[in-house]
Amino acid sequence: MGTSKRIPFKVLKTTFTKVLIKNGFDQKKAEVCSKLFATASLDGVASHGLNRFPAFLEQVERGRILPDKEPIKEFTLPIMERWNGQLGAGMYNASLAMDRAIAMATSNGMGCVALSNTNHWMRAGNYGWQAAEAGCIGICFTNTTPNMPAWGGKEPKLGNNPLVIALPYLDKAVVLDTAMTQYSYGKMAIYRKENKELPYDAGFDSEGKLTKDPLEVMAEQLALPIGLWKGAGLSMMLDLLASGLSDGQSTHEIGRQKEEYGVSQFFLCLHPEILGIQKDKLDERIGNVLADLKSSKVFEGMGISYPGEQSFVRREENLRLGIPVDADIWEKVVKMIELP
To answer: How far apart are CA 318 and CA 333, in angstroms?
Structure first.
């Protein structure tokens, strides 16, 4: 990251809202998308928050994201709905889909939404937190453009297909937010901008050798699957589920477009209390597991965190001190308000 400064959460969110309204979003959509962008940066995921905002607007300008489009329901059952995102803002569509899954789970114990023809949802973990804050267990995933090789392959055929699993816990949550690549492309872009190597192998170079250099990985989109062949297999299965259940595009079909839009997603919610599980007992069970995890011996210089823990820590710190932002990107976004 270049020169850094801290910006209050409210200022970040309000600025995003003003820019989005200027670019054709109505007040409601602008506020939903702005909150999700700002929350990503608040929780320390600037790669899918402020840093991704200019690229999001470029997609709007190019007609890949249609600000005026609303998702439409195509099929419904008491515990399942299928929606068409109509190429609207991916963040807005995903938030609505998770809200619908939450509503069905609150009434019937579980609910799921399959969403086709939508766009990048930015920080995947936002929707896990959304479910957990509503008292639900949430599972969601999306497919992407091909940006990861099959195990043994030398060209990108699979997507990094992020997967989120979230459980409510006390007034917090345990939230796993993982791409199928060892590092997300957003994270690699940050290291590339800083001209740094990643801490661990990030993918393959043009000769098929493992490398930590983000520039070499991004050049051919040969990111390393998590768990090697296991991550490659999981990526394919998530793609088949998302595209099959939503009747939407699969990763290889998205790849034919030469850019990422019209993706497929899936959202599942379970409401423990409606399903007969007492919240205090679930909290106690989760707490015991986390306590045992934290009691583990560690190698020198290492520590153990459970999924989502550091997001909550950064959130509290950044609400108190302001959100660290890249000053150059921030100034670029602020100037967008003044543009004709």
So the answer is: 20
